[in-house]
């Protein structure tokens, strides 16, 4: 442990490195989040259309499971495509903790986004951009699947509440 608590960490970081220390990795985060979110919806939409084509019309009762599976697959594909930017972001964010990481082996320092990309490519090759992909894909599958599952469930509930049949039922 380097800091006894979060407050001490924030104060020390601010005093030693200034306010810019809290914005490390902001550029790759912003560059990655838009394509990641867009790709999630893009692939979810494609997978939903594909599942409607594959699933027989009578088998509509498992729609929530279908949403979960389509969402999980969309999360895995979108995370795989944007993961290199996630690696760069994380490496930029851990900058400044060189003394704490020295016990874990080689410590790298980066001069910014492009320098980080160059060093990863030069020292580790293309595979360096995909280190730690497996646990990230598990997280993306679960989280994105659940997000779309709940999204579709609540959309269906709101549509059911809004439909004329439900208002007649409440009045009667």
TrEMBL record:
One of its GO terms (biological process) is transmembrane transport. Solcar repeats lie at residues 1-50, 62-157. The keyword Glycosyltransferase does not apply. Pfam families: Mito_carr. The chain crosses the membrane at residues 21-43. PROSITE patterns: SOLCAR. GO terms for cellular component: membrane. Keywords: Membrane, Repeat, Transmembrane, Transmembrane helix, Transport. It is a multi-pass membrane protein. PANTHER family: SOLUTE CARRIER FAMILY 25. This is TPC protein. It comes from Certhia familiaris.
């Amino acid at each position: 442990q380097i800091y006894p608590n979060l407050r001490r960490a924030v104060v020390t970081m601010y005093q030693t490195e200034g306010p810019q220390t809290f914005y490390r990795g902001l550029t790759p985060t912003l560059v990655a989040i838009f394509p990641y979110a867009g790709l999630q919806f893009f692939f979810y939409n494609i997978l939903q259309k594909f599942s409607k084509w594959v699933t027989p019309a009578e088998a509509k009762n498992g729609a929530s499971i279908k949403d979960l599976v389509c969402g999980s697959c969309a999360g895995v594909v979108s995370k795989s495509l944007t993961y290199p930017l996630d690696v760069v972001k994380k490496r930029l964010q851990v900058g400044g903790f060189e003394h704490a990481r020295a016990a874990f082996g080689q410590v790298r320092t980066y001069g910014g986004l492009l320098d980080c990309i160059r060093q990863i490519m030069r020292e580790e090759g293309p595979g360096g951009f995909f280190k730690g992909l497996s646990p990230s894909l598990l997280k993306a599958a679960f989280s994105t699947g659940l997000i779309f599952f709940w999204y579709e469930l609540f959309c269906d509930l709101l549509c059911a509440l809004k439909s004329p049949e439900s208002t007649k039922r409440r009045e009667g």
